[in-house]
Q: What sequence folds into this?
């Protein structure tokens, strides 16, 4: 049974916005940090952003800084990724991840969701 389930993906025109959600079956405070990664067609999975669950300290890859915002609602056990000013190159499957001890933008998270597809096209 998956511990993390993503939702919110879809087809959006360039310049539009989407909010992705990652719902955890466990209390998000059981994790030390959670993160978003993405994998574009024909490319390797890359980090987008991560957040420390206890205090919301966040890190972003350069392409995401200023356009994307990661947040967490520990009362609802949901992590979000608000994506604005979307570009065709943001087209990818977006995955959420979580770990009990690791925090950062490396692919070292123990728990992963199955992904939600984001397509930016006119």
A:
């Amino acid at each position: 049974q998956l511990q993390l389930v993503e939702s919110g993906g879809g087809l959006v025109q360039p310049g539009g916005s989407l909010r992705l959600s990652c719902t955890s079956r466990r209390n998000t405070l059981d994790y030390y940090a959670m993160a978003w990664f993405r994998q574009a067609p024909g490319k390797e999975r890359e980090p987008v952003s991560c957040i420390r669950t206890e205090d919301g300290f966040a890190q972003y890859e350069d392409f995401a800084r200023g356009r994307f915002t990661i947040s967490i609602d520990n009362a609802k056990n949901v992590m979000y990724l608000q994506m604005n000013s979307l570009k065709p190159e943001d087209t990818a499957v977006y995955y959420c991840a979580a770990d009990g001890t690791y925090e950062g933008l490396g692919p070292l998270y123990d728990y992963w969701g199955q992904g939600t597809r984001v397509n930016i096209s006119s």
User: Anything to note?
Assistant: The two ends are 36 Å apart (CA to CA).
